[in-house]
Amino acid sequence: MEKKEKNKLAVFLGVIGLVLFVVILAFIFWNPLPEVIQGEAEATVVRISGKVPGRIEEFRANEGEPVRKGDTLVILDSPEVLAKFEQAMAAEKAARAMNEKVDKGSRSEQLSMAYQNWQKALAALEIARKSYERVQSLFENEVVSAQKRDEAEANYRAMQATEKAAHAQYEMAKNGAQREDKLAAEAQVNRARGAVAEVESYINETFLVSPIDGEISERYPKVGELVGTGAPIMDVMDLEDMWVSFNIREDLLGDIRMGETFTAVIPALDNREVTLKVTYMKDRGSYAAWRATKTTGQFDAKTFEVKAVPTEKVEGFRPGMSVLKKR
User: Fold this and answer.
1) C-alpha torsion angle, residues 118, 122, 123, 129 (rounded to 10)
2) Domain ranges of the chain
3) Residues 6 or more apart whose Cβ sits within 8 Å of residue 319
4) 156, CA 20 to 30 Å: which among 150, 173, 227, 291?
5) Average pLDDT over the chain, rounded to whole?
């Protein structure tokens, strides 16, 4: 019995010794892995959309293709805009015709008619004048009554008024439209031109062009689909405007400061080291707290969004790639 107890004790001591030996070796050779902060590469993306509704008639660029500023990317088919353009053109032609008519004044036939009416009134006035002078002479010699003299005088006065009216009609026909009429006709032409220019701008909007140099990152509708005003059609990614975005707990910020640089690695590029410069830091709000407050003195560790840009161009660096920063 005593021998068995000694054997158990020896086994127990051996196990304890082995455990201690393993712990000592682990303590000597254990190399803790550094804490890694992971970020992701991002780039500016411009969304292509149109001001007018229409159907996708043709795509001029596919996903992944490079494009230059001003390249036509999408052609829309919008019959409504073309119909409005025809209406605007017709209205402009009508306004121009009216303006030309006002500028030219009366036609030669109208001018001739007004002149003949004036001459007719002049002849009638001359006859009325002579008749009045004869009757007046006879009245002075007491040959005719005062009633006859008054009638002749009234007819003479009436013919004077008729001659003045006919002469005014002739002068108006000869001088053309009034200044106000000309200004109104010119304003109608300008208004029609503005309507045409407006519809032409809508027609131009059926040809969507790239506002930047970049690469097509995504297309949304298919050819033949109807798209509304402002609906996204495709995205153009600017690979010259890239940055790395990190979400870092505040107690891990360490040496990360605005305007300063730090080193990170890109796993997708064989762990290539890059130097990044911090250009943006902002807390993500209380909803992004990592730890809740406890009575033990711990605090709410908030998360900060940090953006950093490479200090030099990195070949092969693309949005979506991971970027690692070691503490």
Assistant:
1) 160
2) 92-197
3) 41, 42, 43, 217, 237, 239, 242
4) 173
5) 79
